[in-house]
Design the sequence.
């Protein structure tokens, strides 16, 4: 199992360095959501990160990953729906009535409730396949991964800014 973890971490490390080394314009447009390739790299990095943090046994991994993949799939479906609704709302925000603004706020609360419902559903399933301590580590690991990813993005933007200042490509 240790060799598998090291291999996953090595792949995640390599992919993270490849994605950070892309030239400006590679991957996704500046400031926009990641494209399919970048999304896959991030997903691979996240899997490696969570695998390392949870220190799953092979039996735990067999039952955990299908549950976690279902959780991620449901959450992504909700987020896609929300992104579409928010984009439409942003485009019309200045000209909307109070009634329309109220609907947007109500929709946001409804989204958060749906998100919470999915989290509660999968929390029960996570507790069935992992010890409670590992469930707690999972939640903390997801937050740690987000922070690390945001830090890498921030560093990448700073590096690009420095390259432009210094006359680099």
Sequence:
């Amino acid at each position: 199992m240790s060799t598998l973890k090291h291999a996953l971490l090595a792949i995640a490390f390599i992919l993270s360095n490849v994605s950070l080394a892309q030239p400006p314009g590679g991957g996704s447009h500046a400031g926009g959501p990641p494209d399919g390739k970048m999304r896959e790299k991030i997903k691979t990095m996240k899997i490696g990160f969570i695998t390392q943090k949870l220190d799953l046994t092979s039996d735990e991994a067999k039952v955990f990953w299908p549950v976690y993949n279902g959780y991620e799939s449901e959450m992504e479906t909700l987020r896609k729906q929300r992104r579409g609704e928010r984009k439409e709302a942003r485009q019309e925000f200045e000209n909307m009535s109070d009634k329309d603004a109220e609907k947007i706020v109500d929709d946001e609360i409804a989204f958060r409730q749906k998100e919470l419902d999915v989290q509660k559903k999968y929390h029960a399933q996570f507790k069935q396949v992992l010890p409670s301590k590992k469930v707690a580590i999972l939640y903390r690991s997801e937050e740690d991964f987000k922070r690390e990813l945001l830090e890498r993005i921030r560093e990448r933007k700073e590096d690009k800014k420095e390259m432009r200042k210094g006359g680099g490509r």
Q: What stands out?
A: DSSP finds five helices and no strands in the chain. The helical segments are 2-20, 36-54, 58-92, 98-129, 132-165.
